[in-house]
């Protein structure tokens, strides 16, 4: 009894010490702004000194009342030629520092969210290495601290991503309407999954112990995730398309280097691979059903019977479950690692717009590109939040699923939601990339 009390007290002290020390270190080093420090942003200044040539242009001929056509005199053509003022097309590049980032919208929200997520994820990770008695409750073994921090992190990031998605000028109205439609479709798909209307052999999840209200709540949350992640996924697809130079612009100032490009490829491919691991037809390929019996594949002379290879080679069921968890963890970490390249590609997208408008005609109209450069610069931290929210949700739900051993239902739901975030992210990104490949969508 005394040892259990001492163990629970030591666990609580360790969690409190870790939370306090991490918060102080992150605030002192300013890690959130340090992640974005040195990124290249662009400024497209207005024409503050208009010349006389800039005020000339096509003017409508106004006819006096009662004037006949015969009285109209031919207009004399001006001998002055319109010359494009190159000073109006100048764009300036500067590196972001702490003072620049502090003036951006949602900068403080990103910093506070980053602190909460890192502290919660660290406590969830620490709980897996502490001596915990499964017979004791969450308060006795100290699990209450990471559970509360993880739940607070999930709530904060969910509210913030909803607020960001509804920002008035950050996205088009059509994108908001499409997000709502996808949210409704995600809710309907969630109902078919949690109420087991879909074939039971399709997904490796079970919700039999959930009551009707619990299943409905999970379906609503699935719909919210599907709706709110559409715009971040579309930005992720554009960043991948631009960063890997799929448009073949061959401009080094727009595309990224080979290291960042490899990270973008690895992040996308690993996310798609992880999303397939809970789909039984794909997962069965990786499972050796005869792991305890006859091992190895069967041969007919020198020709391999391909059908007999399925189920006779691969991982055991327990190893597959561990492999799934590791893939979720690596997928979340990879998305955070690719945060800087994604944000840089978002800023370079405005640069591409300026370049396209500049070379679109002999006398370009740069008002649109000037507005786009301003908006991309103004909503920088908002986009950072959109890139940071999905991996944060994956890591938090994954951590909650590992410390909720006494609550099998919570463990299953948390793991399912983590997989659902990865699945929605992979589906939206792949669909948008396919539309870019077919030429239905394009960067402008």
TrEMBL record:
- Name the InterPro entries for this protein: Transmembrane_161A/B (IPR019395)
Kindly give the membrane topology term recorded for this protein: Multi-pass membrane protein
Query: Where is the protein situated, by its record's location annotation?
Result: Membrane
Specify where it is mainly localized.
Answer: membrane
Xref: Pfam families: Tmemb_161AB
* PANTHER family assigned to the protein according to its UniProt record, in alphabetical order: EMEI, RE42071P
State the name under which the record lists this protein: Transmembrane protein
Gene source species: Ilex paraguariensis (yerba mate)
